[in-house]
Amino acid sequence: DSGVTQTPKHLITATGQRVTLRCSPRSGDLSVYWYQQSLDQGLQFLIQYYNGEERAKGNILERFSAQQFPDLHSELNLSSLELGDSALYFCASSVTNGAADTQYFGPGTRLTVL
Amino acid sequence: DAKTTQPNSMESNEEEPVHLPCNHSTISGTDYIHWYRQLPSQGPEYVIHGLTSNVNNRMASLAIAEDRKSSTLILHRATLRDAAVYYCILRALTGTASKLTFGTGTRLQVTL
């Protein structure tokens, strides 16, 4: 158990819908990262927040957004869903922001868009 | 991000050592070398990291070449539970962010 929790574990929805994925980082961790894992693209970095502020953006679509709240939990919002958005979404957290920091990953949310 | 090259797959017998290679010829002086693994149906898991010197922890050892253009993750006694995809990742502090850029990794199969 990494200490990172993600809800829900599974999500099935239809095209055009909007969903919210939730992540609670390990206690004391200030950084939260979101990653997407699909069969064709592998594991890809989406976005990072550090202590409530956005710090880096990766291959995140404009239909996707995220935020980190004062209690440090984070939410990833996916809207106007398409079939290709079906993937595993992982959240990770780390203590700070450094290149030597370990990232601890949650169990993931499996999103299926029908 | 500097690129890493790993074999697509490797096989090992249980209880034998496994050496997983990684080439990173374009590594810069401030890049850390990280290894993560992903067991089936789980999120990635940190294994080990280093900068210049060899590193040991309870899970594995990391041997870094003197010129830092390659490294090797060593599992001293592979078990069936070590069957996973192993990712070698170079990690630089870019601006104020530090993401992980995953490649395709090495799929390790461990057999009895």
Q: Please write the string of helix (H) and strand (E) elements of chain B.
A: EEEEEEEEE
Extract low-pLDDT stretches of chain A: none
Oligomer: heterodimer
Elements of chain A, N to C (H/E): EEEEEEEEEEE
Describe this structure in a few short sentences.
The complex is a heterodimer of chains A (114) and B (112). Chain A is mostly beta strands.
Helices and strands, with pairings:
The complex is a heterodimer of chains A (114) and B (112).
Chain A: E1 5-7, E2 10-13, E3 19-24, E4 31-38, E5 42-50, E6 53-57, E7 64-68, E8 74-78, E9 87-94, E10 104-105, E11 109-113
Parallel strand pairs in A: 2-11
Antiparallel strand pairs in A: 1-3, 3-8, 4-5, 4-9, 5-6, 7-8, 9-10, 9-11
Chain B: E1 9-13, E2 18-23, E3 32-38, E4 45-50, E5 55-56, E6 61-64, E7 70-75, E8 84-91, E9 106-111
Parallel strand pairs in B: 1-9
Antiparallel strand pairs in B: 2-7, 3-4, 3-8, 5-6, 6-7, 8-9
Description:
The complex is a heterodimer of chains A (114) and B (112). By secondary structure, chain A is mostly beta strands. Chain A contains no helices and 11 strands. In chain A, strands 2, 4, 5, 6, 9, 10 and 11 form a 7-stranded mixed beta sheet that branches. In chain A, strands 1-3-8-7 form a 4-stranded antiparallel beta sheet, with no helix packed on it. Chain A is globular. The N and C termini of chain A lie far apart (31 Å). Chain B has a 5-stranded mixed beta sheet, with no helix packed on it. In chain B, strands 2-7-6-5 form a 4-stranded antiparallel beta sheet, with no helix packed on it. By secondary structure, chain B is mostly beta strands. Chain B is globular and about 40 Å long. In chain B, 0% of the residues lie in helices and 45% in strands. Classes of the chains: A mainly beta (114), B mainly beta (112). The interface between A and B is medium-sized, with 28 and 27 residues.
